[in-house]
Amino acid sequence: MADETGMIRLVLNDQHLEEVLLASLDECRHRLFIATADVKDLHIPPRREGSRRARSIMTVLNQLGQRGVEIHLLHSGVPSGPLLKRLKAGLKLGG
User: Fold this and answer.
1) For the whole model, what pTM was predicted?
2) Residue 79 pLDDT exceeds 50
């Protein structure tokens, strides 16, 4: 991850959620590229005080898509069962 000066900095362990994923999702305006080994129905903790409900990553990605953000997801394996179920439920088949 690059800091505000453009220098690369190391992000470890739990820092990736707050400093990389959440910040990227909040700031994304045009294109989002995600590369990961495992794809699952990640639930993102609330960012606001007083809010106790986590949001599914699928909900967040859908909101970005509705705002016109182009989303690219590169992964190495089969998505988890719960994520596949959500994806299949949202597919519109036919012409």
Assistant:
1) 0.67
2) yes
Place of tokens 């005080």: 49
Torsion of CA 33, 10, 17, 72, to 10 degrees: 10
Calculate the alpha carbon distances from 73 to 21, 25, 47 in Å. Answer: 13, 13, 23
Nearest one of 67, 84, 66 to 75, comparing CA atoms: 84
Closest CA to 34 of 71, 60, 64: 71
pLDDT tens readout for residues 49-68? 667 788 888 888 888 889 99
Q: What are phi and psi of 60, to 5 degrees?
A: -65, -45
* Rounded Cα distance, 40 and 83, in Å: 6
